[in-house]
Every structure is written in C-alpha cells, then in structure tokens.
Amino acid sequence: MQPAGSASRSSSLRKRLLRAVTAADREAPGPRSARSLRPVIAFCCSLLGILYLGHLFWAPLAPRPPWRTPLAVQTQNSQQGTADPYAASKVVNIVLLAPRCCDDSRYTDLAEQDCHSRAVRLCHGLAPSACFSAATATASCERLWQPRGYKISYAAAVRRAVPYLQRLGWVNLKVYRDISESDLSLKGVPEDSPLRAGACNVDALREATEAALQKADVIITESGNFKFLFPVYRTQRFIILDTSDTATLRVKLTREHGDLDDPRILAVLKPQVLVPASLNNAQIFEYTSHLAWLPGASSQPQYTGRRSPPASPRVLDRTIAALSHIYRYKYPYDCGGRMEHIRYAGFFAQNFTSWRPPPLRTRKIDLAFFGKVDSGLYAKAEKQVLAQHRKAAIEALTAMQAIHPELHILPGDKFFPDYADYVATLWDVKIFVSPYGAGEWSHKDFEAMMCGCLVMKPRAGAFTTYPAVFQPGLTVVDVDVGWANLEHNSLDMLANLDRAQQMADKAALRLLEYSDMHRYAADLDTLLTVLTGDQQRSDAPNATAAPGTRT
C-alpha cells in the first residue's frame, strides 16, 4: 500500500520540474538553445520516472510505526486479527458490577458537556461556590446528580470506560448494577430520594444481573461484594476492585470465601500500591504498612505485626494500581462526585481560560499544611499515631518559621468558610506539605497539584498511584516520615524554583493526560488483554509496571 500523500508529493515534484523546464524553454533565445536542452529534459524525466516507480514498489514493504498507520488500516487489521496478537482474548464474557444506584438513564454526555460549559463560562476557578451552584441550577444539570461518596467513584470510572473498551474490541463486556447488600452507593442516597424506589430497587435488577453473572467468564466487582460472589459463582474468574484508602493489600479472605492465590482471581486493582510490592509482607500497624513507618507506631507494639499468611509472589504481582480519583474531579456529576469539584472543570478544559494558577515564583506562601490533626474517622490506634505524625509536621514547620522569619509558612489545623477560599489559598502556595491520613495518598494531593503547587510527601517512593504522580525528584518532593529533613528539602526547592516549577508542571500535566477516558480505556485494554489471556505468560502485570503507571 502506498502511504497517503506519496503520489501527490511525487506528482507535485514532477509538476515543479516541468514548470521549470517550460520556463527555461520560454526564455530560450532560439530553436538551437531549445534543442540543446532536450537531452537534459529527457534525462530528468527518465530519472524521475525510475524514482517514482521504485517508490511505488518499496513503499508497501517499508516498516511503518503503529502511530503512523492510518486508522482505517488499524481497524481492518484488528478485524483480521493481525494487529492485535491477543484479539482472541477479547471475546470473553465480562460483567462489570457497577454501583447499584448509579442511574445511567439520567445521564447523557450532551447534558454533562452543557453543564460543564456553563460552569466554565460563568465562573472562574476562584469564584465562590454560589456561582457554580447558580450556573448549574438548570433542569438538565440537576437531573445529572448521582449518589455521592468517593468510594464508589472508582467503579463508576471503570463503568464509564466500558463504551471505549467496547470500541477497542471488548464487545462482550457488559455493565450490570450491583445487587448486594454491601453496595456502597446506597450510603450516598437519602432515604427520601426517588432513586431508592428507582435505580436502587434490587428486585427490578436481580433477575437480569444474576443471569448475566451465570454466563460470565470474568466478573469485575468491588472487594466488599467479592467475598459473597466468589463461593457462589465457582466457574467464573474475578477481578477485584479494592477501594481501600491505603496502598497496602487489605483484601483478606477466609477459607470459605477463597484465597487470593486461587487462579480464579486474576488481579486486585487499587488506587495505589506499595513499591516494591514485597512491602506488603513487611511490618504492618493495624493492617496497614504506612502507619508502621511512623515513629509513633513503636510505642504500641500490640498493634504491630506482619501479614499472615504472607502474600505470595503471584498475588503481589497481580496487585495493580489501575483505579484513580482524578475522574471524580473531571466528572463531578457522576457517581461519587461532589458539587464543589465543578470548579475544576477549568483545569480539564482545553483552553484553560478559567483556570490559570500563577507560577510558583509569584506566589506569596512558601510552605503550607492545612488539614485535620485529629479525626474521628480513624480507629483509636490509628488516630493516635496519625495525630502524632501530623502534629510533628506542624511543629517542624513552626520551628522552620522561627529560624527563617523571611519565609511565609502556614502550618496548622486550618478550615475555610468556602471551598473557593481553600482553592484560592492553594493558588498562592509554592510547596504543599502533605502528611499521611488513612492512606499514603490524600485527596488534597491531587487538588494541590491541579492548583499548581509542588507537593511534599513522606516516603513518596514507597508507593505509586494511577497515574504515577508520586515520583520523588520528578513530580513531588520526598521527605522523611519524621520530618527530619523537611527544612533542608524545602530550602533546596525554594532556592531552585525553576526546577520546582518543572516538577509541579509535570505532576499537573500527568493528571491532565490520564484524565482522558481514551487513555484510561487504552490502559484497561492492555491490562484486560494480559489478565484474560494465557496466565503463564512472562508478560504478566505487576504492581510497579502496571498500565498507566509507567513513566
């Protein structure tokens, strides 16, 4: 096949030569001069003809990189099974159990785009929340609202990628709604909501969902529901969506509910995973690794220990960072979203006209930490260790302010009257110090990155997320879990703001790149292809090189 444009380029070259020759003939003084040019013309035309014929012969044989292959050729090759060596694996029947109360009949892309456009047009990034409430106070926007709660946003994002995956060849991948009593979306629906009698109605869903599960080859489900399905559907394979806040592998199964080493369990997908994965078998505190890293953990040995039994290499290899919180910000109307996140529509807009955080060099606040020091969300043992960790961060920042009065540092348990005040403060922060919470990663990390801050995270190299935005020295600043080198690392970045700006920009751009649903579907396509294919292949996935986490 001749590449598109090759013939036109050769024809254009031939025309330019002929025009030049014709012009020379016109300018020739007489017949004698014209006759003297005829051998040259004949030679040029012959040479051009030989080159053109050679090009027609060799062009189909020349190697062509895949990104230069025309889309029609890619589609044709895919249909013939030549471009995709794993095309056979895409015919498996896969059922994704989405949150029950996520009512797709209420949701349309056109209405979502209209609401986003109104928000971007009428409200800039630092506008009060009332502006966004008024901008989206239309019938079409209000119809979009789905159950709240970030725990359901992960499965909702996978469900959102299904149409893209179907276009990539996964024609037997279908979405059904969760009918279990452990379904997390119920918590986000008020008792008097019409969703309770509509989308949340188990009786209306049960027959179709159970029939689909019986026919499925692979079931993708949230970890809370998995333990009930696994003993019932004994011929199906499973992909578990573990939505726990920590990077530690928290899925613990009994003999009755199955073993993670069971070959029927293809993978455990998480928002973040430990690096290296063997850290899952190291010391833990209250079932999590990151709490065991903190200085306060040693004072409570009764809560420390190790995973028993230890996770096998196969299990660790198939614990993969492939869920992300970024879609909750991009699609605030969808399941698990929040109204406050509509203001980030400017970040995801192509022109960024309503979202222009200033460069680090012009910001007034050098370092900042604001968040809850003591939270009732954590268990008693967790609460004490985390409170010590966060108080130590405040003490380190306070001491640094005393030593360096020329710096502007905001340490403390700070609250904001309006979400806009919180975002406005982030727009004025150079380095955002982010201690641990229930997990290594915090919601504020993505928010600070989208606001252009450089994030400082304790032991950032010991875990990775989807996408990989916690890379010390590339996208974030690493710091000791006890804050011993906070001053040194902060001063180093403040003295090299150009480098700090590059790191902050790289983190924000990576979030933007991976927020694209085409990109997410492509990564899920790669992952599903490997998982549903030959399980003995050497290219099995692993936690440190999962789709979407490669640099």
From TrEMBL:
Keyword Transmembrane listed: yes
Transmembrane segments: 40-61
Keyword Transmembrane helix: yes
Keywords tagged on the record: Membrane, Transmembrane, Transmembrane helix
Protein's recorded name: Glycosyltransferase
Annotated source species: [Myrmecia] bisecta
